Amino acid sequence: MEMTVMQRLSNALRTQRAERAFGIDALSRIVEGYLPDNLVAEVRRAAEFATSVHEGQRRTSGEPYVYHPLAVARTLAEMRMDHTTLIAAILHDVIEDTGVSKESLALEFGADVAELVDGVSKVTRIEGRSRAEMQAESFRKLLLAMTKDLRVILVKLADRLHNMRTLGHVAPDKRRRIARETLEIYAPIAHRLGINVIRTELEDLAFAHLYPKRYSVLQEGVSAQLGDTKKLIREVEQKLSMTLREEGIGASVVGRQKNLYGIYQKMRRKKLKLLKVTDLLGFRVIVSKVDDCYRALGVVHHVYKPVPQEFDDYIANPKANGYQSLHTACIGPGGHKIEVQIRTRDMHHVAESGIAAHWQYKQGAREGHKQPQARAREWVASLFDDFGNASPLDFIENVKIDLYADEVYVFTPRGEIRRLPRGSTPVDFAYAVHSDLGDHCVAARLDGVLEPLNSTLVNGQTVEIITARHARPNAAWLHFVKTAKARSAIRNYLRQQREDEAVRLGRRLLEIALRELAVPASVLKDEARLAPVLAAHKFADVEDLYAAIGSGQRLAPLVARHFLPRDARAPDEAGNAAPLAIEGTEGLVLDYARCCHPLPGDDIRGHVSVGRGIVVHRIECKHVKGRPQDWVPLAWSEKVQGDFIAELRVKAYNKRGLLARITAELANAEASIENVQMPDRAGGEAVEMRFIVAVKSRVHLARVVRRIRRIEWIERVWRA
After folding, report:
1. Which one is predicted more confidently, 60 or 124?
2. The HD domain covers which part of the protein (predicted)?
């Protein structure tokens, strides 16, 4: 009882703190600072609507669920986003977690809000899809929504940020999975879109949850190495500010310790120990004009000695996300290496907010703020151009490859700049210019010198691709290309080659099977004989049929039997026997897998097994997860009859007469019991029983389960 009271007190205090930080009033105070009163009223109305529809829902931490969407909106309000984005953030979970539809949301708050909320919502569960496939499909849906409105990703990133801030209340396994997903997908997306204010916090939070010991050790090591960080930062800020002022350059200087995940990544990338990582501090010099950036650079180098070969001009050569700054490294006080970034105020807004800069300041963003948005649209559009037809898992893999790119700048023979991921090769360059150039490249000249195709490109090189008409992509290229576009193009070519080979193999196998049945191969050219066979197997033309046979999706002997005259087929094929259970298995031995007990109505696959014929499995069976080419797609016949075995597990309170009640319900549901397994020892509050039952179909089994669940002692019933 005492523990319950303490928990209630803890939850109450947590709710009070959340109310102060993330309640409607707290959000309104921020929004009132930059939006007119009528739009503030709309934001409040959305908050009240969310409070109503989320009534009774609570987060894992115990606080009311509505504080989460309000916290998401607060993050975006602090970035000064427009009222449509704020309303979408407040309502971002209502389609997924409440009974509110997209249509009713559009009527209440407008089509733009409804589209943004729908873009953030996960796809509904699809039968037969794994968790990974569903997550990948939801991610593709999110990116597709970005092609229409980039604000959808801002809502998603703010959503992920608040989830990461409160991840401590989640179970450890789920916590690690979410943290890994954040590091692999969402933090890189924030980086790609230039939203560094969110990216750095996502990285550090995910790092702390995924590798808590490494995070703790690194945090202590950095503190020990820097000593009094605040004093050191204040000294550099004051000295640079004073010197810049003396030179007539109006500037603000802000120092900070670099984020721990960035330090960790540098240690891994360059194989360094912490003592060798000297640039743990970074400083930003913010000036008014571009000319002042280069003047300030001279002042910085005069005050602190620059480190050779550690200067980058991202003003002349902006990054793909629109980021612009001058970067230099210097030796600061006490021999500490410091990094200095010099940029204008406009560049700083873009560097911190990326695509969000376009909507900031009452829609009054300057023309330069539109550039990150245009670049982001081009990037998302290119993803769907290159990988739009890929499977969900392949799509997300290609996006990850594209996201992890640091950049190298090279030139075409005409002097045009091309940005490529660091580590790219001439093959990547060729595909970046044009797919045909990549498909036919044989060698490259780098700064006029003939080099192999797997050479690594470096900044400033001029790349000339040498082609040959007969040349084609090579599978070995997949071992060294870096860009997702090149990898996708090579795989598509190789896949097409495999399909062509599958067509040739399938035709050969079918001709052999026809010969064994004494059917002439000429039937394959007889449209009258061919049409019913194609219709039976649901193929548009004979090439698709050959490809299916060659890739193992159809069995040549089974297809060949369809070319026999009706009177020459087996009795069951002529319709003189019981109806078939599985379509297209005439004359073949069928066996039903005991590992998953498939029922009519289940999605099924078949495996050809020596001595057992075709073994039928449910598609979600763990044994179906293997090599796809080893499995044959199957479908239940519409006229299937007979009883099929299913396994039920029942967890219930151990009450007298429990088994009798269950068996009575099974009998009433017209299901027969083949076997029952009870726990060896009686006693205890709960027992788990295993029933092997015979039913007609999946629908029949569902009816059986519903009847058992009516028993008041039942805790859970599930199909094994």
Report:
1. 60
2. 65-164
